[in-house]
Every structure is written in C-alpha cells, then in structure tokens.
Amino acid sequence: MKLSVFGCGYLGAVHAAAMASLGHEVVGIDPDATKIAKLSAGQTPFFEPGLPEILASSLGSGRLTFTTDPAAAAGADVHFIGVGTPQRRDGAGADMTYVNQAVADLLPHLRPGALVVGKSTVPVGTAARLAATVAPTGARLAWNPEFLREGFAIKDTIEPDRLVYGVAPDTKDEDTAILDAVYAAAIGAGTPRIVTDYATAELVKVAANSFLATKISFINAMAEIAEVTGADVTQLADAIGHDARIGRRFLNAGVGFGGGCLPKDIRAFTARAEELGRGESVAFLKQVDEINLRRRQHVVDLVVSSFGGQVFGHRVAVLGLAFKPDSDDIRDSPALDVAVRLKGLGAEVISHDPEAMDNARRMHPQLAYADTVDAALDGAEAVVVVTEWKQYRQLDPRETAAKVARPVIFDGRNVLDPAAWRAEGWTYTGMGR
Ligand code: UDX
Hints:
Layout: E1 2-6, H1 10-21, E2 25-29, H2 33-40, H3 51-61, E3 64-67, E4 78-81, H4 97-106, E5 115-118, H5 126-134, E6 140-143, H6 153-158, E7 163-166, H7 172-182, H8 184-188, E8 193-196, H9 198-229, H10 233-241, H11 262-275, H12 284-306, E9 315-319, H13 334-344, E10 348-352, H14 357-363, E11 368-369, H15 373-377, E12 382-385, H16 390-393, H17 397-403, E13 408-411, H18 418-423, E14 427-429
Parallel strand pairs: 1-2, 1-4, 2-3, 4-5, 5-6, 7-8, 9-10, 9-12, 10-11, 12-13, 13-14
Helix pairs in contact: 1-3, 9-11, 9-12, 12-13
The structure holds uridine-5'-diphosphate-xylopyranose (UDX).
C-alpha cells in the first residue's frame, strides 16, 4: 500500500521505517529539514536499537522516502498522523499544535476514499473533531493508538501486543479492511484486534499509560513504607507479583518514571477529565504524579544526609541521565533531575550516560560530563545509579571501590546486589530495601 506518515519523531520515524520494511511504499513528512536530511541519509535523529538497520534497508529498497513537502502525501491511500502531543507550556493539558498543523497540511492533498489514521496520543474527543475537518474532502478518519516502548520500538511496531482501531460506525467495515491490509503481517500472526469507536480508542492509550504509571507509583509508595519499617520492597514486589492478577512487571521501585509519555499523559488525562466535569474520577493520578516526583527528591535527600546534611563541594558521580536504559531520551528524566538537583545544592556532579550525554549537555551545560564510567567514578565521594544501563548493573564492587574516594553508593533502580557491595566495604542504600 502507499502510506504517508506525518511526523518523523520517535513515533513517526519508527512507524515509517517499520511499515516500509513490511513492504509498503512510505513517505515520511516533517517540517524539520535537518531531521529529514538526516533520515534521508540513513541517520537516526535519536538512539533506538534496530532502527538504523531497518532504516538503511528500507531506504535501500526504494520504498521509503522522507520530505518536508506535505504535497508528497497526495498519492497515498493511508495517511498516518504520528506527531508529538507534548505537555502545554501553560498547563497540564496536551499541546495540540502539531496534530492540528499536520491535519491542516494534509487537507489540500486528501482525495475521496483516503483514510487518515491518527496514532498520536490525544485528548478524548479529538478524533471526532478531526473527522469533521477531513469529511468535506471525501476522506475518512480512524484512530489507531500506538503502544511502542522506547528501546523496543521496532518490535512493538511490527509485532504489537494488540491493535486498536477507532472507526466511524457507518464506515466500520471499509476502514477495518484498510487497516487490516496495512497490518496484514501482524493480523496474520494472530495479533488481537479491537475494533471500536473513536472515544474508546483514544482512551485505551491514556488508560494504559495511567495504569502503568499507577503500578510504578504504587510500588514506590510501598517503598516509602518499607523505608520506615525496614521491609524490603523488592521482595515484596516478588511476592505480590506471583499473584497472576497482579503480575511482577512494572513493579520495580526506584527513582520513578519519566520519558516523553507517562508523565505528560497522566497530566493531560487529568486535565481532560476536569474539562469533562469528571476530574474526581482520575484525581488519584495527581497522587501518582506526586509520589513519582517525591522519589527523585528522596534520592537527593539520601545523598545529602550521607554528607551530614551539606553536599556543597562534594564530588558525586551520577550514573545515568536517560529516563531508562537503551534510550538517549532525557525528557522528564528522573536521572537527569537528580543530577540537576544535586548540582543546584552545590555538589560537584560528574555525570555519565552511554547515550544521553549529548542531549543532556545541550539542556544542562552546567553539569560536568565524563567520557567514561571510570572518569566519573574517579575520586567520587558518593555514587548514584539512576538509570539501569547494563554496564552499571555489571559494575564490580571491588574494582569500583578502588576508584572512588569514599565507598558510598545509592542504587536508585535497585539493580545492584546489596550483599556483594557491602562485602567490599561499601555503604549501600537501595530504594525501599
Ligand atoms: C511507555 C509505555 O510503556 C508505552 O506502552 C507507551 O506507548 C509509551 O510510554 P516508554 O516511555 O518507552 O513507554 O517507557 P517505559 O518502558 O514504559 O518506562 C517508563 C518509565 O517508567 C521509565 O522511566 C522507567 O524507568 C520507569 N519504570 C518502569 C519504573 O520506574 N519501574 C518499572 O517497574 C517500570
């Protein structure tokens, strides 16, 4: 099929490359000329395992092109909207500028029978509004939320857990058939598919992310209780996780969640529910957000108290800046936040991250960045692990002790073995364990 993808950020670039790798003819469209030049040359604007490979093969096959010109969408049967919906600068709601602009750019190039497919995470009600906007062209609109995780974006796109189609009731069968043809590979592999209305499809995405955020804040709340009772939240998570109704995944306590989705999605959902007069239904999401943000300060407080209440002038190695491993994304990153807060208190912060240092340096030039883990550890009076990159999980307690000035470590992701570190003379502090 011929597809266009509006937006070549995380979602759009991955979607475009993945769809081309499945055999579709795809044009990726984005107003950012630098991004388009990079993608056209086979360079990924962000770190995502596997993306360079499928980008190269899809460009090589001739089925994938990138352009800044919305007119290139004209010949496509299906037009995906995969632009960002960040948090508004002036509030908690979603900034719809990019979605509205993408639809406006696409409108003159729509032909009767074409299907516009929204993938961006939007406030419920958006699809109905946009369907009315595209209707005069004879094109139709569907909402097809995306559930990809950074670090697993290619797999999540090509082999999703489920497909959700929000379609207009009177064209349900035609629109479902078009989306089934786009996702023929996943459908053929037996992927569950839910065909529903616009509002449900829009809500599925924010409900899923709200649930995941709640799960993480739940276990972090348990960590707070563990901290005052001497209990171990990791064992608690293992024990409750054996109950299949609860499940062990997304029950890792630590510095909490960040990234370009969970934090802004729960805030936008709260704002939208309030607009709809149902703020109380999701009022708990404010607590989920608060618990989450408290965990960052908790790590900072622990570091400060290890110096007797004053961190000024002390050298602290912060290992990790990305919001999670296998990503260079620093949006709303708890790790970066911890580094910035410690620096703000006068600590001599030396940060390291295998992939996110360039992004962090652009935003926070006041931090010091070490090229290697060893350079970050050298002479450190405290070590803080805030992103669970493999190379930090594999640090050897004895070798690490020889590099630092004071063997004090804070395990912000509960990924180190406390006994092994204590056996080498370290003062080890985990999160709620
Ligand atoms: C998330 C959703 O998982 C995905 O389905 C959606 O499409 C986009 O948002 P992503 O932002 O890539 O994906 O990250 P995710 O793997 O969900 O992790 C989010 C944050 O939660 C990270 O900061 C991670 O460190 C943190 N986290 C995750 C925990 O603190 N504890 C856990 O147990 C799991």
